[in-house]
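#structure-requests
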Amino acid sequence: MTGSVSGAAKSLNVSQPTVSKILRHAEDQLGFELFYREKGRIFPTEKANLLFTQIIPVYEQLNELKKYTVMLKSTNVGRLRIAMTPAFSLQAVPRALAAFNKKHPDIPIEIETQHASEISRLIQNSTIDLGIVFEAVSQPGLEIQHLGQTEFVCVTPKSHKNFNRKISLEDLATLPLIRLNAKSPLGHMLNKKLEGLGLYPDGSNIVAETYHLAKRLVEQGTGVAVIDKITAYSGTKTQLRFHELPDLEPIKIDVISRSNDPIISFKQDFLAILKAELITYAG
């Protein structure tokens, strides 16, 4: 670009011998000459001209990278990668994300729904940043933060009018209970509680993998179900009745993250918005 070694040295604010040394090193590494000398001046070889056409876009990309790093330093630009168990995807998290997106329209959002065990694995291998689950299990390399709590409710068809507002576990033993899969945290908790009391519900021939599916089966008159309040109060409720279960303990709502990746900046904003949304379903 400058036509001489001295001109390049001046442009780069280094000494002429330094430029000559770097040039010789570059030619040694490449295995071919970049310039030829004539009458005290240097001229690019044909290969140098061909190489230069490829170098120009690389320099342009480097300049753009520099601009981008300056922008990252002065803004909250990043991305929010979340995974959640199905219950949170029905209403709570979508509402929180809508509010978050209005506040941070420049933040890309990636969302997926998974089982709790898979969410922990995705966080460990850095595929996602935050996991929203019930009753998180402590594992090496993971940080657990309690975001709030909810509770179990018994969902019955609206046609069942012979129950009070509250239902005991003994009442469940006489009902066609749609059980939750024991692989899920809530299913495991509920089944363990019922078995510990020696209560085995009559007609429990259906096991649902998700709490939302159990709720849908109740709507079809298939039986009754014990599910979390978040699932119960999300979406349609007109054909259902909800009953408190005072014999069961509250359910913790947890956020999982990597131990070496603190939740800061806009991620804290999202969790604050979600926490406010979850108050609706608090126990």
